Amino acid sequence: MAISSTFSAAKLDSLLMNYCSSSSASFSGAYFPYQQQMKVFPRPNHGNKGMVSRNGGVRCEAAEFNAALGPQKIDLSKASALSALQQLKTSAADRYTKERSSIVVIGLSVHTAPVEMREKLAIPEAEMPRAIGELCGLNHIEEAAVLSTCNRMEIYVVALSQHRGVKEVTEWMSKTSGIPVSEICEHRFLLYNKDATQHLFEVSAGLDSLVLGEGQILAQVRQVVKAGEGVLGFGRNISGLFKHAITVGKRVRTETNIAAGAVSVSSAAVELAFMKLPESSHTTARMLVVGAGKMGKLVIRHLVAKGCTKMVVVNRSEEKVAAIREEMKGVEIIYRPFTDMLACSAEADVIFTSTASETPLFLKEHVKDLPPVSSEVGGLRLFIDISVPRNVGSCVTDVEGARVYNVDDLKEVVAANKEDRLRKAMEAQAIITEELKQFEAWRDSLETVPTIKKLRAYADRIRLAELEKCLSKMGEDIPKKTRKAVDDLSRGIVNKLLHGPMQHLRCDGNDGRTLNEALENMNALNRMFGLESDLSLVEQKIRAKVEQSQK
Q1: What is the distance between the alpha carbons of residues 266 and 362, in angstroms, rounded to a whole number?
Q2: pLDDT tens-digit readout, 440-488
Q3: Which is the catalytic residue, given 20, 60, 136, 150?
Q4: What are the tens digits of pLDDT across the range 218-267?
Q5: CA gap 470, 403 in Å, rounded
Q6: In the chain, what are the domains?
Q7: Is there a cis peptide before residue 42, judged by omega within 30 degrees of 0?
Q8: d(C-alpha 29, C-alpha 31), whole Å
Q9: Cα–Cα distances in Å, from 486 out to 13, 366, 479, 490, 495?
Q10: What are the strands, taking DSSP E only, across 96-185?
């Protein structure tokens, strides 16, 4: 383990002072208040390889530290005399350089948090690059991505330290949303490494959706990849994770019948409206759709499928409405600009809202003066709001003669056919399990890539040096053909010599070799050939983060 004196002293001091200031809070339960509140998916911390002595103290690997620290050598016989801060420095240095970077998801979804909280945390697509940049600016975060939809707000990161990374991201979420950290901790869920990967695969396959098998979530996962292209913090691990999740989503929908008969959020919203309307008014109720984007268009389609032949659509421009009208001939679709929204609402029995507005379109003062609706439709004006952030303020529920439903109320619709959905989910899980092994093998293989590159570079330097000596002895008038033959010979010898070691460094899941075996081989080669250990790369990452925070 290579730890430079500058890193172990001045740079590490900054990291440790921050570590010390929050250690009491972290161990008193500040990190884990969610464990008593909700379902938790625990993962063993394989990365934390600190060694504990029988008396409960932290035992440091003194030999390695002595070699790195020089005049600051640690004498084990005097370890008991070390100050608490010095012991913390050495133990923390060992922890931060030995812990493997973890994939972590910090999330809130329709299953764990109310829409009132999710809408405050929602991040518009245009803000994704900024959010990724801010997250990767945190001390313990290397890579990041944000999946923000009407049903979930999930942040995926590669963290140098699990606990510190989670703490920093949670604080960032609090800062950007205005929600206290304690409240976020009460509703969040945390998943690590394999569990985090499996969760995203299930999300992409539609297994974690409010509506099982709905297809829109796969498009939203694709959009994360598109938004992350070219963004510095959308790195190899996270981009690989999301791209593999897209593959899983496609395969599940192709190889199972999970999408057969599945409903989307939009279709569930239409279904909910018809559940609340008297059956006699299903064909006569006046429908208003506010917003003609993807969700609005799906609402219109499902209304038509239910037998509606006339509806009003309010949108910022007429272009999208005209395209929908052209696609659905035989249906009277009337366009109105946003300036006419309230006037159109006065003439509607059911109002669907699905815009990207970050502020409510309907508040109590807008609705209270609307004329009452006919008793033929139940005497209640229905607001079906499938937007996050919400387009209809919660204060509208106080208006007599109005009923407001949001995405959280769709559970009533999707509760049907539970057994059939569970059977389909089991079919999909078999595919997810298979794909999960492939992704984990790919990620494991990344551990030894630096050593593979360094070993090849080391061998090639020797080859070139010896080749130059050989050619110089052969004289200057060597024919090109001979020179090429000697060069090819040297390359062939090196390649054949490296073939065995390279094979034993690879861990792609195809030959049964475990990650531990590959890492043992990697460490052996590092020692034999004096290659720079991959642990120093982690040290460099932490050092860069600390230096960045001090600027």
Answers
A1: 20
A2: 877 766 666 677 778 788 888 888 988 888 888 888 888 888 889 988 9
A3: 150
A4: 999 999 999 999 899 999 899 999 999 999 999 998 888 777 655 678 88
A5: 88
A6: 102-255 (3.30.460.30), 265-417 (3.40.50.720), 514-550 (no CATH)
A7: no
A8: 5
A9: 54, 86, 11, 6, 14
A10: 102-109, 141-148, 152-159
Per-residue pLDDT tens over the stretch 287-304 = 999 999 989 999 998 999
In terms of Cα–Cα distance, which of 311, 314, 312, 263 is closest to 283? 311
| DSSP-assigned letter for residue 344 | H
Q: Is 150 a catalytic residue?
A: yes
What is the distance of C-alpha 164 from the center of its chain?
Answer: 17
In the chain, the largest separation of any two C-alpha atoms, in whole Å, equals 105
Structure-token pair, residue 248: 């899983």
SS3 of 216-270: the string is: HHHHHHHHHHHHHCCCCCCCHHHHHHHHHHHHHHHHHHHHCCCCCCCCCHHHHHH
Q: How far apart are the first and last CA of the chain?
A: 27
Q: Say what the alpha-carbon torsion angle 22, 25, 28, 33 is, to the nearest 10 degrees.
A: -110
Query: What value, to the nearest 5°, has the Cα angle with vertex 102 and ends 434 and 41?
Result: 65
* Cβ atoms 212, 262 nearer than 8 A: yes
* Each residue's pLDDT tens digit, 355-407: 989 899 999 999 999 999 999 999 999 999 999 899 999 999 999 999 999 98
Over pLDDT 90: what percentage of the chain?
A: 44
Retrieve residue 149's tokens. Answer: 């939809």
